[in-house]
Amino acid sequence: MHDIRAIRENPAAFDAALARRGDAALSSDILALDEARRAKILASETAQADQNKAAKAIGDAKAKGDEEEFQRLRAEVAEKKSEVAAMQAEAKELDAKLTDMLARIPNAPAEDVPQGADEDDNVEINRWGTPVELAFEAKEHFEIKGVSAAMDFETAAKVSGARFVFLKGAVARIHRALAQFMVDTHVDKNGLTEVNSPVLVRDEAMYGTDKLPKFGEDSYQTTGGEWLVPTSEVPLTYSVAGDVLDESDLPLRMTSHTLCFRSEAGSAGRDTSGMLRQHQFEKVEMVSVVHPESSDDEQKRMLRCAEGILEALNIPYRTVVLCTGDMGFGARRTFDIEAWLPGQNTYREISSVSTTGEFQARRMNARFKPADGGKPAFVHTLNGSGLAVGRCLIAVLENGQKEDGSVELPEALAPYLGGKRILGADGVLS
């Protein structure tokens, strides 16, 4: 959510930020609506003052026994009361229109975000590991002999439709081991607090984390009105909605492993093979709530947490900073981590680490009290995948594949697999 006062003070800067995202200027429309809203509020307040003045005069007229003036003033108060109610309703309607307009406008990019139109203009800032050179033609994850029978899309389609999967046997266990490894690493090594968070949330939580109103079609809503979370960023971030935290409480660093649900609206025909893009998936999320002065450093810290997971699993990756045209709606700056997938012979996104600045905090009124006793200020919120479990499973399977259809698994997972390091071509761990 944008600060209307900042738009009033510098509309040119606001429009320049929108232009960097490729959007049209909106300050004139916003300020016209804001002016009409403020004028209606002023008019209603003036009418309210006149009503109060007339109401006071009624008592004076009655005390004097002036019946004619008493009746005249009563009629005037009744008329003013109706006029004030109408003006207040109009002001409320204009306020709702302004709030809705501001809620649909994306966050302003940070100054250091590269200018660009789409993913082709993203800028690589780091690369780790060397893509494995296989002496045979690499297979995609679902084609590997030791995996294919345990990754059952046909049964899932019978039960749930397209873009679902049944994971069975050893592959299901490896998937679970990855999630446990990620959570344990974030808690024991990275200092995050584990949270078992809900996967059903209210409208307010989706709105506060910028998923509504613009992206409702991308998520699933129950008949009771609750939403299935697209990511646990929603409940973790919204947990501080309406709070005024002490500065000493910051930073708050949380992690949660949950099911996530996305309708994938607009993605028809994309990544339909395998389990790269599913309606239901699991993710280990990281969320930080921090002092504004530390948010840039916190984003770098969160990025290293996510990169460290891939390094521990020996998965080659590259890190890019997204350009202005490829950033998400609520992001001020986003780093994407892309894991090497031999089966596709390319890097694919496995994590996004974003800072929203005060964009989400303003929507959900999350603030902190400065230690020096100053006026409460908005916190900054950040979120990042640490990591997408299913995509990490794909990377582990494809990078560890052998010509005979077996898979060598990362040493880091051995404690979670009873010490076993090999997924055999027969689908059995050993």
Which key terms come to mind for this protein?
430 residues, alpha+beta, eight-stranded mixed beta sheet, three-stranded mixed beta sheet, 12 helices, 40% helix, 19% strand, elongated
Kindly describe this structure.
The chain has twelve helices and 17 strands. The chain has 430 residues and is an alpha+beta fold. An eight-stranded mixed sheet has the order 1-10-11-12-15-9-8-4. Strands 7-13-14 form a three-stranded mixed sheet, with no helix packed on it. Strands 2-3 form a two-stranded antiparallel ribbon.
Provide a compact summary of the structure.
With 430 residues, this protein is α+β, with helices and mostly antiparallel strands. It contains twelve helices and 17 strands. 40% of the residues lie in helices and 19% in strands.
Largest sheet: 8 strands, mixed
Spatial ordering of strands, largest sheet: 1-10-11-12-15-9-8-4
Strand elements, count: 17
How far the N terminus sits from the C terminus, by CA atoms, comes to: 53 Å
Name the structural class.
Answer: alpha+beta
Gross morphology: elongated
Give the SSE order as H and E letters. HHHHEHEHEHEEHEHEEEHEEEHEEEHEE
Q: Please state roughly what percent of the residues sit in beta strands, choosing from under 5%, 5-15%, 15-25%, 25-35%, 35-45% or over 45%.
A: 15-25%
Number of helices: 12
Helix content: 25-40%
Query: Which parts are unreliable, with pLDDT below 50 for 5 consecutive residues or more?
Result: none
Average pLDDT, rounded to a whole number, is 94
> What radius of gyration results from the CA coordinates?
28 Å
